[in-house]
Design brief:
3 strands; transcription regulation; single chain; about 100 residues; 5 helices; Arc Repressor Mutant, subunit A; alpha+beta
Amino acid sequence: MIIELNAQQTDELRVRIFKALADPIRIQIIRYLRRVNKETTCGDVSKVIKMSKSAGSYHFKVLREAGLTITRKDSREKYVSLNYDTFEKYVNHFLDSL
């Protein structure tokens, strides 16, 4: 199902995207997810980036709410992957710069 956004909603999404990208830790998360190029656990990402569970939860939430990542919960584990559609539509070629 495709949801069309009006101009104001699109602008609000852009603001969330750029705020999410304005943090070095979140850039590291995105870089790691791009490098592994597959769905991986939030815990694995947190270990590689060396951040606490609470910090990881916060950063993953910001990225998810900006539409930059997709999170899937399976039992007690959360899996995260990049949402390439959002990158392609709103920040085209950004991933190439990493």
